[in-house]
Amino acid sequence: KLTSLALQPAITPELVQGRVHLKCSYSPPPPEPPVQFRVLWSRLSSPGKREQIHQETTPQPFSYVEMDGANLRLGDTVFCTVTAFRRDTPEQQSLPEDSKGFYAGIKFLPESLEIAEDGKEHVLTVLSTVPIACPGQGDSCKITLQLSTEDLGSQVPGPPDIALSACQVDLLPAPCLGSSCAAATVTVTAVTDFAQDGNRVSRISAQPAAPWDVLWRAYTPRDVKVTVQDLPTGNCYSFTDPHIITFDGWRYNSHKIGTFLLCRSESRAFEVHVRQWDCGGHRSAAACNCGVAAR
């Protein structure tokens, strides 16, 4: 009997005549005597359960199945299972060998983020594991993903704790390398919200924007969960005839008349100016805050 032949089936994406296909390739055993392969394609229908979508018998060391948007859709995790047998003794079969699951659709890397309210930017890569196909579209071939953020049920409801560098990204056709056939990046930053609101969880969602391709039309990629660590915020003060307390707790008085720079960030466009006018009269030299401008 044929036993395990180490066929090592693997799934790769491929464009065939402008349409998205998945290809199952396997290492054939020595050609003598002639060998046939039975290839069973399946997809994950629910956790731990697979649903058969296609089966064929072929002498070739590969098998194709089309992503047609009906039997096989974006968002599916797909497997191919290969069994070998000799033409003259079809009842003697090798042990069936499974490929790894291939997720067809949009992936975010990393799949989840843990960041802090420290102003740092974190790069999120958005990639498509299947080719971007645009027959007849010419130079305008792309899939546009609309990005949005949402707060996930924190104790203090409010706007999301994260900000993105862009509201949408374009995935442009490129040769498939590994599991990436098109990729773009966006940066994620935790919002410094000056509030002690605890660690909060937000999510980033992506939605294909008005895709003409039926394959993309009913597809919603998986969300990215972002946990934001709450950090205490620095405070500084200027009050009465101005007493100043700096971020690091240094205290002094400023009785000058005029407009002054109160604070400025060295890393971003943020500064506060203050205007002080005489409010002590003839008896004492004192100034009071009478105006503030913030950028």
UniProtKB/TrEMBL annotation:
Name of a matching Pfam family: Ig_VWDE
GO molecular function annotation = signaling receptor binding
Keywords for this protein: Disulfide bond, Signal
GO cellular component term of the entry, any: cell surface
- Residue ranges annotated as transmembrane are none
- Determine the domain of life of the protein's source: Eukaryota
VWFD domain location:
234-295
* PANTHER family linked to this entry: EGF-LIKE-DOMAIN, MULTIPLE 7, 8, VON WILLEBRAND FACTOR D AND EGF DOMAIN-CONTAINING PROTEIN
Please identify the protein, giving its name as recorded.
VWDE protein
Organism, by scientific name, is Hypocryptadius cinnamomeus
Its taxonomic path starts at: Eukaryota, Metazoa, Chordata, Craniata, Vertebrata
Gene name linked to the record:
Vwde_3
